[in-house]
Automatic annotation (TrEMBL):
<protein>
    <recommendedName>
        <fullName>protein-tyrosine-phosphatase</fullName>
        <ecNumber>3.1.3.48</ecNumber>
    </recommendedName>
</protein>
<feature type="active site" description="Nucleophile">
    <location>
        <position position="9"/>
    </location>
</feature>
<keyword id="KW-0378">Hydrolase</keyword>
<feature type="active site" description="Proton donor">
    <location>
        <position position="127"/>
    </location>
</feature>
<dbReference type="Pfam" id="PF01451">
    <property type="entry name" value="LMWPc"/>
</dbReference>
<feature type="active site">
    <location>
        <position position="15"/>
    </location>
</feature>
<comment type="similarity">
    <text>Belongs to the low molecular weight phosphotyrosine protein phosphatase family.</text>
</comment>
<feature type="domain" description="Phosphotyrosine protein phosphatase I">
    <location>
        <begin position="3"/>
        <end position="153"/>
    </location>
</feature>
<dbReference type="InterPro" id="IPR036196">
    <property type="entry name" value="Ptyr_pPase_sf"/>
</dbReference>
<dbReference type="GO" id="GO:0004725">
    <property type="term" value="F:protein tyrosine phosphatase activity"/>
</dbReference>
<dbReference type="InterPro" id="IPR050438">
    <property type="entry name" value="LMW_PTPase"/>
</dbReference>
<dbReference type="InterPro" id="IPR017867">
    <property type="entry name" value="Tyr_phospatase_low_mol_wt"/>
</dbReference>
<keyword id="KW-0904">Protein phosphatase</keyword>
<dbReference type="InterPro" id="IPR023485">
    <property type="entry name" value="Ptyr_pPase"/>
</dbReference>
Length: 163
């Protein structure tokens, strides 16, 4: 059985596609492609059908990640097929939990940086959209730092579903 994760940010062109690409690479490196499926979406549909922000693509590709992406909006009906919904900041967390059809679905929503022990109390990944390239680099650093802890937990869950 496949374990399914969806990363969610505002417009699905900066933070969530970056997190999707990084985790997909980690999953592949760990040989877990057959067990874990990852994608991303936005809380809004402003950019639906667009590629990722060119700065996101540039930073991802510069660091060896895939920049291919098509933006879409998260739908509440997706909760039934997802095991984990990863919000990139507290605003997304709140919006997603309100969108969840059941309390069980709401409990599937977590903040990405909660998987980074060094994050402390600041669990938001700041939106780099209105800034320069350095904000996208900072975003990638935060995503990479959290991806190891996230992969460890997800691997345990995915392997537990197969056993």
């Amino acid at each position: 059985m496949t374990y399914r994760i969806c990363f969610v940010c505002t417009g699905n062109i900066c933070r969530s596609p970056m997190a999707e690409s990084v985790l997909r690479a980690r999953i592949s490196e760990a040989g877990l492609d057959d067990l874990i499926e990852v994608d991303s979406a936005g809380t809004g549909g402003w950019h639906e059908g667009d590629g990722a922000d060119p700065r996101t693509v540039s930073v991802l590709e510069e660091h060896g990640y895939d920049g291919t992406h098509t933006a879409r909006q998260f739908q509440s009906s997706w909760f039934s097929r997802l095991d984990l919904v990863i919000a990139l900041d507290a605003g997304h967390l709140k919006a997603l939990r309100l969108l969840a059809p059941t309390p069980e679905d709401a409990s599937k929503v977590r903040l990405l940086r909660s998987y980074d022990p060094a994050a402390g109390d600041d669990l938001d990944v700041p939106d780099p959209y209105y800034g320069g390239l350095d904000g996208f680099e900072e975003c990638l650093e935060m995503v990479e730092a959290a991806s190891e802890g996230l992969l460890a937990e997800v691997r345990e869950q995915a392997e537990g579903q197969v056993a």
